[in-house]
Amino acid sequence: MATFRFERDALRAKSSSAISTEQRIRFQDVDAAGIIFYPRLFEYCNDLLIEVLEQCGAPLPEALKTGAWVSPIRHAEADYFRPLRFGDRIEVALVRVHLEPTQATLGFRVARLNPEGGEAELAAVAQSQHAFLNPQTFERIPIPEAIQAAFAAVGE
Predict the structure, then answer these.
(1) pTM exceeding 0.90
(2) What b-and-e string marks burial along 83-120, b requiring 16 or more CB atoms within 10 Å of the CB?
(3) Backbone φ and ψ of 130, nearest 5°
(4) How do the pLDDT tens digits run along the chain, 156 residues long?
(5) CATH number belonging to the domain at 8-154, selected among 3.50.50.60, 3.10.129.10, 1.10.10.10, 3.30.365.10
(6) Is 79 a residue of the active site?
(7) Phi, psi (rounded to 5 degrees) for 23
(8) Catalytic one among 9, 29, 31, 79?
(9) What three-state secondary structure class fits 74?
(10) Which of 59, 56, 126 is nearest to 95 (CA)?
């Protein structure tokens, strides 16, 4: 199955249907150069995804406990535009979703929030492609309806 990719500019743009959360860059999230250690960006995106699953009624801990489904990542990539540093407040937003019957490609936008309340500054974009599988057979299954509905609300 081909890997769908969003164009970088599609992820850079703000989306009115985005789902987002705010957080601070923690001390343990930065490297010796004082900027975010690059894989932390994927952790922030994954944290938002887990929150979305909870909100749509498909909590990941429950799915793992019952063996209803798993959703491993098939592909992930990120582009970094500005450094993020310890103490920065950021917004992580799910801005685009491309749905296929058994997989979803999620597009994220990460922006540094202005402490004075002005325009947020784009820092990075990321995307990840998730396959939905039966955990016993590892065969593909349709995306569960509640998740599909939540993702469809974000739009492509």
Answers:
(1) yes
(2) ebeeebebbbbbbbbbbbebbbbbbbbbbbbeeeeeeb
(3) -115, 130
(4) 667 889 888 899 877 778 999 999 999 999 999 999 999 999 999 999 999 999 999 989 999 999 999 999 999 999 999 999 999 999 999 999 999 999 999 999 999 998 887 888 999 999 999 999 999 999 999 999 999 999 999 977
(5) 3.10.129.10
(6) no
(7) -160, 175
(8) 31
(9) strand
(10) 126
Q: Are 41 and 124 in contact (CB under 8 A)?
A: yes
The domain locations on the chain are 8-154
- Could you give the 3-state DSSP secondary structure of residue 110? strand
Which residue shows structure tokens 């922006």? 111
Helix axes 40-55, 145-154, angle to 10 degrees: 120
Tokens 């597009």 -> residue: 107
Contact residues for 78 (Cβ-Cβ < 8 A; gap 6+): 38, 41, 42, 124, 125, 126, 127
